[in-house]
Amino acid sequence: MNYLAHLLLSPPDAAFRVGNLLPDLLRLPQLEQFDGRYRDGIALHRRIDAFTDAHPLTRRSRQRLWPTFRRFSGVIVDVVYDHCLIQRWEHYHEQPLPLFLAEVRASLPELREDLPDKAYRRIDSLTQWLGDYETMAGVSTAMTELGKRLRRPVEFVGLQAALERQQQGFLDDFDAFFPDLVAMTETAMNGSAQK
């Protein structure tokens, strides 16, 4: 899953939410410096990713991008599922998405001293543009920008058209998958709370 899902699946605790983003932003030695609620968020991030990667419905979503985008299908589906989450946002959160993201952003200054500058700036920035995933054009743009930053740059030619062709299939997969992820997350957090 991508950033928005990690934020949504976190309890409304600033350090936990940020911890649930950090494994995508920092290397392992940097992650080891965190404790407390950050550590809880980091652990949940890893469980979410492992569950998502192994789930048959996310595998089916990745196959929708084969053969053209097979190599990058996992990361593309992560971003596409954030698009799907935006489409279904009101089913999973009572607060409108712009207000939710503004709340996350407003909580960041209290954590400023705990975070490496690059991670802090990245989290602050993503709270401003995550809503761009509302359209497949926004998803395609995000992937194009990612492709430019790779060691060997990749142009995702034809990606937007491929995403739009498969849009209903992605939504169907997401609608069946996401409740499973929510249930797993709730079980994981309840188990942690009992320790």
TrEMBL record:
Superkingdom field: Bacteria
Keywords, comma-separated and alphabetical: Hydrolase, Lipid biosynthesis, Lipid metabolism
InterPro entries membership: ACP_PD (IPR007431)
Protein name (database record): ACP phosphodiesterase
Organism of this sequence: Labrys neptuniae
Lineage: Bacteria, Pseudomonadati, Pseudomonadota, Alphaproteobacteria, Hyphomicrobiales
